[in-house]
Amino acid sequence: MKRAWKIVAIALIAIVLSVLLPLTIASILYSPEYVQRCVSWGPSDVYDYQKFPQRMIQAGSEPFFFRQGSAEDEARVRSMLESTLRIDDLDCSLEAAGTQAFIVIQNDTILYERYFNGARRESIVTSFSMAKSFTSALVGIALAEGHIKSVDDPVTKYLPELALRDPRFSNITLRHLLMMSSGLRFTSEDYPIYLDDMFSDNVLTYYYPDLRELALENTQIVEPPGLHFLYNDYNPQILGMVLERTTGQNVSYYLQEKIWKPIGMEYDGSWSMDSQESGFERMESGINARSIDFAKFGRLYLYNGSWNGRQVIDSAWVAESTQEDRSIDRAAYYPQKVLMENGYYKYFWWGNRRDDGSYDFSAQGYLGQWIYVSPQADLIIVRNGEKELPKEWGPPMSQFIRAMGKNVNKTEARV
Fold it and tell me: Residue 58 pLDDT > 60, yes or no?
């Protein structure tokens, strides 16, 4: 009996140590606040904007409104989606798939706009990694305004302290960061968070309370830049610091003045920060807005950076950001299973090249957030949700987009 109790005691001690040891090590290596967030906040979800501090992004006085389509328009979209997805009821299926908002816009006209799972038109939804596409847009604006001289500038031109830590940082350009080919280490663990996941980069870049410090001191070069695509949340954080230093403004204010107000966002938005003390925007994620305003960002890119006669983003930057770099050796550059057959990644946008040479592109985020733009179909689709859409919906959704392209009214389409 005593031996049995001894075994139980040893097992309990081992369990306690297996829990306390990684917590203690992580607290020493990083910070107690970081460990507390990992333990108490748990896996990330679409309501994390309620946990992180945020910086407000004010809307302007003249909001833009899409035209409202007819009941026949909605019925047509509903019928097409139900047919291609092979479902009986679109609304019920979107609800069951954890969707919060689903919007289809063509020729500046809302054809379908529905909200689910307790969400309404005025409900706040979060971007997750769609924020990267906004970051890309701000880099383009900073370039046009002369704050940034070239995307081929070494990052150390703007963050010289990186070179002091490792001279090889001088080989990494802003373009490498935008292409997700910086050569920086990025370890990734699947959610939910387990204790050992606290040491992975994707958890650190999400929960760490001082992301500037993390990006400047925790980044490690593992290969020369430009060789391989590796989705890496340090890259947008580094670019965020470049934007801060070159513009002299926080990134939220720069977004507010250069995009949010000029394109007539209907509602105020916000950008989640790492902490109140640090006050740095979570560049890899965390723009919080309404779905209909996310659609306006899609429209800005659909119209090649122009907004009702005003060039908000240089059209050359929009094209450069969303068109495939055909000089890349895809087999060597992209890891297997990262992209569809004709998919590509460019400047924080996901692209899809068609056989006829045209292309679509999208801003995408965790749990199935996306702003999909199809120039050929004059189409914008926005989806926000609490979980990913079923994987089997991918090919049918592409069929729907192609079918919508055939129905586009060329007399009303953008020019």
Answer: yes
405: helix, strand or coil? helix
Asked whether the predicted pLDDT for residue 10 surpasses 90, the reply is no
Q: State the DSSP code for 258.
A: I
Q: Are the beta carbons of 256 and 263 closer than 8 angstroms?
A: no
Confirm whether pTM is higher than 0.85. Answer: yes
Give the pairing type, strands 269-272 and 287-289: antiparallel
Phi and psi angles of residue 274, each rounded to the nearest 5 degrees, phi first: -65, -40
Beta bridge partners of 110: 68, 105
d(CA 88, CA 83): 8
Dihedral over alpha carbons 124, 200, 158, 319 (to 10 degrees): -60
The dihedral sign for the CA sequence 342, 348, 349, 350: positive
In this model, does residue 411 exceed pLDDT 90?
no
Q: What is the DSSP string of 328-377?
A: S-HHHHSPTTSS-TTEEEETTEEEEE-TTS-EEEEEEETTTEEEEEETTT
Structure tokens at 177: 């960061």
What are the φ/ψ torsions at residue 357 (nearest 5 degrees)? 95, -15
**Bridge partners, residue 361, by sequence:** 351, 373
Strands (DSSP E) found in 190-348: 269-272, 287-289, 306-307, 310-311, 343-346
Q: What is the mean pLDDT of residues 360-389?
A: 98
Alpha helices by DSSP H, listed for 30-102, are 32-41, 71-85, 90-96
**Which whole number is the average pLDDT over 146-163?**
98
**Span 298-314, mean pLDDT?**
98
DSSP helix/strand/coil, 14:
helix
- How many other CB atoms are there within 10 angstroms of residue 111's CB atom? 25
3-class secondary-structure state, position 189: coil
d(C-alpha 351, C-alpha 196), whole Å: 34
